[in-house]
Amino acid sequence: MIKRVLALSGLAVSAAFIALLAFPGLKYTIYRELPVDLRWKISYLTSDKFLVGMVFLIERDNALLLVRHRYQDAWGLPGGWVEHGETIEQAVRRELREEIGARVISTSVMEVRKPAYTPVVDIAVRCQIEPGEMLFNDSEVVETRFFPREGLPDDILYTHKPYIQRFIALSGLATAASAEPRPATGATPVP
């Protein structure tokens, strides 16, 4: 009896699969008839999942802020990940407070990218921060500097270069690698 039930179930599943192949619109008709919560679950299970990463472009006196992370061998933009339940704005504020001790005045999304073959969506965010010294998290960041646009270092993370180039292009200024970097200045402690 069990073998017969399994055989009939397998036959029913095969027939349903063939029907869906033969009539592509049928799956949408069936889907529409399902309860909404079940539709959401099906959509979630069959959809790709992505991490949302952010890089921050912060300028002061025509100089761009770069950081050197403990786990990187090159300069890069400050950045981080959006955590579950956060808005982009909340994530920007949290990451900049954690990473460099900065308070955000304003933000604007400059660019959103989905690099091919990765489960990541990247958001480049222009940020204005309060003046003052940055008190960086030395367990993550070992150095912060504002580099003049014309004096950006050669050793910048290759994944961050396109964002920096776009930022400079949008700002209407060209770059040349010649000037010496300046250390970050000012003081605003993190609460």
Automatic annotation (TrEMBL):
Write the record's keywords in alphabetical order, separated by commas: Hydrolase
| Any one GO molecular function term | hydrolase activity
Q: Which InterPro entries match?
A: Nudix_hydrolase, NUDIX_hydrolase-like_dom_sf, NUDIX_hydrolase_CS, NUDIX_hydrolase_dom
Q: Where is the Nudix hydrolase domain?
A: 48-169
Name the cofactor(s) required for activity, per the record. Answer: Mg(2+)
Recorded family membership: Belongs to the Nudix hydrolase family.
Indicate what this protein is called per its UniProt record. ADP-ribose pyrophosphatase YjhB, NUDIX family
